[in-house]
Amino acid sequence: MEPATSPSSSKSSPRFDRTSAAILDAAAQVFSEEGAGANLATVAVAAGISRATLYRYYANREALLDALKADALDAVARRLADANLERASVEDAIERIMRAFVAVGDRYAVLTHDQATLEAAHGELAAPLLAVLARGIETGVLRDDLPVEVLYEFLAGTILKAIALNQKHRLGLEEAGAAAAGFFLNGSRSRD
Q1: What is the rounded CA–CA span in Å between residue 55 and residue 176?
Q2: What is the pLDDT of residues 128-177, one digit of tens each?
Q3: HTH tetR-type domain: which residues (predicted)?
């Protein structure tokens, strides 16, 4: 006979989800303030749990950072889907892209320095951005003397800089997103 599993200990239970969410919230905050090397005991305290509970959910720092990465990528993907990029003008779509990334990047700024996260973001999130840029080139809104992949690299760099500026508190979320979108658009508009 198999032992009974308590619903509260099951990974699909609401309690697990609440505790996991609290841990991820705390980790995002602590890592944002102290860096990815922050003490995991500090994360546990911020989440209102014991270190033992933290380690039951996430066996080590790498597992916690992987969960943060997955959470961040899901959050950006949801924001991009909600932004209806395909229905917006190219300029509005780029502004929406910036807002989506800057808002999520504010919470998960520690991940912007992790090459694996950036590669995962490219792999999972590039398609809608490339589609907007290609549409911009095709419609004459964006310059056609650079391949879409080069414009994408400029866009990605502008997104990362906007997140960094927001983190340094030089700009707020909306201001950072708007400034980055304007900066990118001013450099990538068609010269015709």
Answers
A1: 36
A2: 999 999 999 999 999 999 999 999 999 999 999 888 888 776 677 888 88
A3: 17-76
Query: To 10 degrees, the CA torsion angle through 88, 102, 54, 122?
Result: 70
- Count of C-beta atoms within a 10 Å radius of residue 181: 24
Judgement on whether residues 79 and 135 belong to the same structural domain of the protein: yes
Phi (first) and psi of residue 142, to 5 degrees: -105, 155
Taking phi first (over 0 means left), then psi (-120 to 50 degrees means alpha), and beta for anything else, what does residue 35 get? left
Q: Which pair of structure tokens corresponds to residue 90?
A: 């190219």
Residue type, 163: I
For residue 166, give its domain range: 66-187
Tens digits of per-residue pLDDT, 86-106?
999 999 999 999 999 999 988
Same domain membership, residue 71 and residue 53: no
